[in-house]
Known about the structure:
Keywords: Aminotransferase, Pyridoxal phosphate, Transferase. Its cofactor is pyridoxal 5'-phosphate. It contains 13 helices and twelve strands. It is of the alpha/beta class. The chain folds into two domains: 18-251, Aspartate Aminotransferase, domain 2 (3-Layer(aba) Sandwich); 254-364, Alpha-Beta Complex (Aspartate Aminotransferase, domain 1). It has a seven-stranded mixed beta sheet with strand order 1-7-6-5-4-2-3, with helices on both faces. α2 (60-73) runs parallel beside α10, α3 runs parallel beside α4 and α5 (133-139) packs parallel to α6 (161-170). It is globular and about 70 Å long. The chain starts with 17 loop residues before the first helix and ends with a helix.
Amino acid sequence: MPEDATTAQPSPAPAWKPSTLAVTAGRPAREPDQPLNVPITMASTYVAGGDLEYGRYGNPGWTAFEDALGALEGGRCLAFATGLAAVTTVLDLVGHGAKVVAPAHSYTGTLLQLADLESRGRITATLVDITDTDAVVAACEDAALVWFESPTNPALELADIETISAAAHEAGAYVVVDNTFATPLLQTPLALGADVVVHSATKYLSGHSDVLLGAIATNDDELYAVLKGRRDLLGSTPGTLEAWLALRGLRTLHLRVERAQANAQELVRRLGKHPALSEVRYPGFGGIVSIVLAQGAMAADLLTRKTKLWVHATSLGGVESTFERRRRWKAEPGTIPDGLVRLSVGIEDVDDLWDDLRRALDDLR
Ligand SMILES: *Cc1c(COP(=O)(O)O)cnc(C)c1O
């Protein structure tokens, strides 16, 4: 089985900035009559004798997406069927009965995955307050893997990735950062000490709410080979069309994130004074804002049904603004306020977003 399949292409100049890399990385070789983009290759098998051999081991379209995301994260990347498939594959790195440390306020799919593995005796999970650096460092002591989300979902807490990574490495543990919320434009965890970055490419990377896809990035060649082997063996490989759509989305990542962030920052300024809210949470960057309704869950549910522009839907990171009350999901931890609504701010006009949201909030009184 071939270890890894690559397409011929110019490697991006290392000095290029992230927005240039988002546009240029993962292109075919510049030759007359070659398309500018890697075409969609629908193939379950290839003529024998080359690197690819079979559709589960590689596809030129996956490689193009992986090269582009790898260039942005500063490592080598592997695409997966979904974000959760990437999470599953990475958690499978640890041995039987190993201790995994993770934030108590992680993505619910990750929490469910950890609980399921623990209930079957596969691992032990220690859930921590990721903002309490001393406590997390202490928890790292006998850990095999330390999992981060920063900012956390949907509490939007920040972790001291550098300090905790150093402690985790001292204990011989892998350091994994789910970088879905920040994107490599706002945070590059490999540079902060992480061994593996995980993405739900379903969110900002693809950006148009039409694709499920996951990815990992690492700058450790050994880990890359292990994870590639696991992906091939578990069959958690991406769809060909999905990888193509995700790369198309990635080309405008910087524009979308810039605009969503600018909109989010302006909305946070305006929301701060609204009497219907008891709290506005924002980590200072990115396009996700969590608001807490002073009157609790019923007011929050009402809000999500009163808007014309904001769409009531789960997920995040699309061009369109969406929101939901997170505790409507049973798996959401009880320490998340019942009346917390997570806003995924899109790239619409900020005045239209504000008018729609303010009107709905005013109506609650
Ligand atoms: C959505 C999400 C995931 C899971 O990704 P899917 O593509 O839905 O499988 C993992 N982590 C975070 C932070 C997410 O938001």
